[in-house]
């Protein structure tokens, strides 16, 4: 067993760290901007995120995993891993759906015109994309989605509703899954389209989460016209296009790098304010557990990344990393609340506030729901990993 990176990958890590030091504002300012992983809730945070992404573009890193012909640099899995790890540890604003799945899907299934029109504006961070999949009656069982798109001449006309649309209030374009054949079996009547979010008939309404932040939205469609040239891939094959698996790093390392940073912050806080530990002595051992969590989870993520680097396709292994990382995030946030005791309820700017952990604590709840709930991940591990029958 050998746990080390190649020399060129370590040199790259150094380059990423230097870039972060030069281009990101100091940590306190990042936190003030809600910068944990690029939580875009208002125009200021959006501008901050886009500004940083433009710097990444200038450096050639925004789409570093993409093939060179599409503006990427075809980076190896290990370079991607190190890059994701360092960016998440630094709390850099990340998460760009255009880079994550719109562009990759267009590379595989888009027309030449679509590739020329959309891909350069994605890689240059000129367009921001949101994802319109979930509906009030379709989340885990996404194939049940009901938002209708009906062909009318050169257009499709969309009617229906989406929900939990992250960044929908700030997005230029929407990547939408619609039902185009209501009579086909549910997986076979779905079509993906690219929707101009400023189209007449699109209404975006904010959903404020329990931390009081506006990250996601409800989006309503009333006779919204989308040119048929903006269908992505084949009509009625959208379900299969959604599952597009390009060979990009998907280990979940960000949760562990961010978690490591948070455990370090809490440990430093406990050292700086010894009275907190005197009041809640159990937090010492809780912090020890959290440090173990981060190390165990990092190995789960490395397992996924090294499988990919060897040309394997991780499946239940990726579910294990997602599940453990999101639940660990909640445990770390809870440990922080235990450390701060009653001060933990105070938000930024409150009298007597030591540090705002409450926002992160409330925000951590969503990690076990977004991108596939914990129950769904456990189901995958039980069936595909352990070979148990479906429940
Ligand atoms: C922070 C955040 C951001 C999001 N951003 C987006 C976005 O940008 N675009 C978008 O389209 N969606 C987004 N979502 C929606 C997300 O994909 C869904 O919330 C998620 O898929 C769960 O669906 P649901 O909320 O409808 O819950 P449901 O699927 O209704 O689940 C309810 C409960 O039932 C359980 N359950 C459901 N099915 C099973 C099963 N088969 N076995 C066992 N238990 C089951 C679930 O685990 C859960 O506990 C976001 C969600 C969050 C929290």
Describe the structure.
The protein has 391 residues and is α+β, with helices and mostly antiparallel strands. Helices cover 46% and strands 14% of the residues. It has 13 helices and 8 strands. The chain has helices spanning 7-23, 27-32, 43-59, 77-89, 97-109, 112-123, 238-242, 253-272, 274-279, 282-309, 316-340, 358-364, 374-385, and strands at residues 129-132, 148-152, 155-163, 173-179, 190-196, 202-208, 214-227, 231-232. The strands form 2 sheets. A 4-stranded mixed sheet has the order 1-4-5-8. A 4-stranded antiparallel sheet has the order 2-3-7-6, with no helix packed on it. α11 runs antiparallel to α12. The radius of gyration is 22 Å and the shape is globular. The model is unreliable at 35-39 (pLDDT under 50). Flavin-adenine dinucleotide is lined by residues 131-134, 139-140, 164-166, 216, 366, 369-370, 373, 375-376, 379.
Number of strands: 8
Provide mean pLDDT, rounded.
Answer: 93
Proportion of helical residues: 40-55%
- Low-pLDDT segments, ≥5 res: 35-39
* SSE order, one letter for each helix or strand: HHHHHHEEEEEEEEHHHHHHH
User: Which overall shape is indicated by the principal axes computed on the Cα atoms?
Assistant: globular
Strand content is 5-15%
**Spatial separation of the terminal alpha carbons:** 37 Å
């Amino acid at each position: 067993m050998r746990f080390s990176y190649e020399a060129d990958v370590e040199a790259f890590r150094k380059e990423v760290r230097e870039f972060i030091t030069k281009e990101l504002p100091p940590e306190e300012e990042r936190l003030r901007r809600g910068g944990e992983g690029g939580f875009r809730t208002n125009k200021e945070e959006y501008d901050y995120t886009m500004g940083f992404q433009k710097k990444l573009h200038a450096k050639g890193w925004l789409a570093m995993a993409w093939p060179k012909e599409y503006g990427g640099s075809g980076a190896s899995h290990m370079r991607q891993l190190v890059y994701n790890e360092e960016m998440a540890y630094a709390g850099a604003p990340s998460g760009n759906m255009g880079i994550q799945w719109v562009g990759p899907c267009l590379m595989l299934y888009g027309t030449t015109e679509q590739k020329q029109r959309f891909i350069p504006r994605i890689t240059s961070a000129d367009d921001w994309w949101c994802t319109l999949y979930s509906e009030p009656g379709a989340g885990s069982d996404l194939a049940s989605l009901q938002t209708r798109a009906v062909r009318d001449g050169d257009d499709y006309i969309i009617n229906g509703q989406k929900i939990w649309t992250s960044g929908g209030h700030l997005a230029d374009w929407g990547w939408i899954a619609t039902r185009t054949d209501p009579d086909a079996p549910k997986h076979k009547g779905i079509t993906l389209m690219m929707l101009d979010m400023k189209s007449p008939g699109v209404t975006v309404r904010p959903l404020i989460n329990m931390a009081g932040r506006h990250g996601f939205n409800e989006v309503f469609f009333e006779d919204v016209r989308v040119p048929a040239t903006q269908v992505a891939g084949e009509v009625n094959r959208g379900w299969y296009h959604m599952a597009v698996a390009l060979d990009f790093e998907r280990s979940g390392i960000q949760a562990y790098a961010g978690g490591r940073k948070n455990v370090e912050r809490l440990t430093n806080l406990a050292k700086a304010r010894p009275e907190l530990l005197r009041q809640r002595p159990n937090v010492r051992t809780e912090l020890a557990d959290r440090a173990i969590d981060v190390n165990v989870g990092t190995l789960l993520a490395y397992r996924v990344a090294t499988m990919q680097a060897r040309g394997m396709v991780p499946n239940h292994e990726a579910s294990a990393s997602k599940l453990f990382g999101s639940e660990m995030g909640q445990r770390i946030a809870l440990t922080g609340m235990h450390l701060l005791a009653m001060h933990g309820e105070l938000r930024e700017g409150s009298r007597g506030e030591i540090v705002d952990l409450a926002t992160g604590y409330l925000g951590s709840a969503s990690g076990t729901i977004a991108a596939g709930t914990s129950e769904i991940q456990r189901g995958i591990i039980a069936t595909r990993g352990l070979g148990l029958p479906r429940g």
